[in-house]
Specification:
single chain, Spore Coat Polysaccharide Biosynthesis Protein SpsA, Chain A, two-stranded antiparallel ribbon, 7 helices, 27% helix
Length: 299
């Protein structure tokens, strides 16, 4: 059975200022999502499931359905505030859904096979999809999941600091923890992050998470269990978020299995800030010129 690609596209795009998931970056109007799906199809994925918000459902479908019809099976899932909450009362003042792990949970009834999860606004590169597909068709199991690890130096923005999940990896290549580092940036020839007014250097090759995960479908039941606990603990916190690394961290610490860190040499592109957009367009244009992608992706 071919694996599925789950794309998290319900984000608000607050720092960027707009719905960046449907902005055009390719020479023929392609979005970043188009390139991810193209790479996924080339790598052997059989279905794509989009997690979106109901308020831009029609606009989103109008963009993607004509391109993808006949090329890959598509499903659309709404991330609603009350999805899988079991009647839990939403805290007063909460204005957005519960985070990326909740977004994955929303796809529970649509995915019954091994699957990968990615962000809609990150350009991951073909190598990551090829390696994810190999893992999902050959190694994944209820006790073995994976994360695609990107080299830190290939995930930075020239227009501001970034936050990255720095992966801690054992000698067997398995994840032992993810440390969320804030305010990472280049300083001369080094890469540093700031913590408590102190600058700490990180090696350029440090593996980091760009939210590209590979899961067995048993993850849904586990997320649902942890989500119930999360809701009880955060009943009075309207800003609390239930992120995928919370799931990965608990899975490891409870000795339920291992998460393999699969390294990729791919260059990441992203639009964390609006000022990143021209650089991403130039980078994609360069890949088109080199023959990595056709001028018109879906023609």
């Amino acid at each position: 059975m071919k694996p599925t690609l789950l794309i998290l596209a319900a984000g608000m795009g607050s720092r960027y200022g707009g719905i960046k998931q449907i902005d055009a970056f390719g020479p023929s109007g392609e979005t970043i999502i188009d390139y991810s799906i193209y790479d996924a199809i080339k790598s052997g994925f059989g279905k794509v499931v989009f997690i979106i918000r109901r308020d831009f459902e029609k606009e989103f479908k109008d963009i993607f359905e004509p391109k993808l019809k006949g090329k890959i099976t598509t499903e659309y899932v709404m991330q609603e505030m009350d999805s899988f909450t079991g009647g839990f009362a939403v805290p007063e003042g909460r204005s957005k859904p519960w985070g990326t792990a909740h977004a994955v949970l929303c796809a529970k009834d649509y995915i019954h096979e091994p699957f990968a999860v990615i962000n809609a606004d990150d350009f991951y590169g073909r190598d990551g999809f090829a390696k994810a597909e190999q893992f999902l068709t050959g190694e994944v199991s209820p006790s073995t999941w994976c994360i695609i690890g990107y080299e830190l130096s290939k995930t930075l923005s020239e227009n501001g600091t970034v936050s990255r999940g720095v992966c801690e990896v054992d000698s067997a290549g398995n994840l032992t923890g993810i440390a969320e580092r804030l305010k990472i940036y280049r300083e001369g020839s080094t890469i540093v992050y700031e913590e408590n007014d102190t600058k700490i250097e990180l090696p350029p090759s440090t593996p980091v998470s760009m939210n590209f995960w590979g899961f067995h479908p048993n993850v849904f039941e586990y997320i649902e269990t942890l989500f119930k606990k999360f809701l009880k603990e955060n009943a009075d916190n309207p800003k609390a978020e239930f992120f995928i690394p919370i799931i990965g961290d608990a899975y490891i610490k409870e000795n339920r299995g291992k998460i393999k860190v699969i390294p990729t040499s791919s260059q990441w592109f992203g639009v964390t800030y609006r000022e990143d957009a021209p650089t991403v367009k130039e980078s994609i244009q360069s890949l088109v010129k080199s023959g990595e992608y056709p001028e018109k992706l879906w023609s």
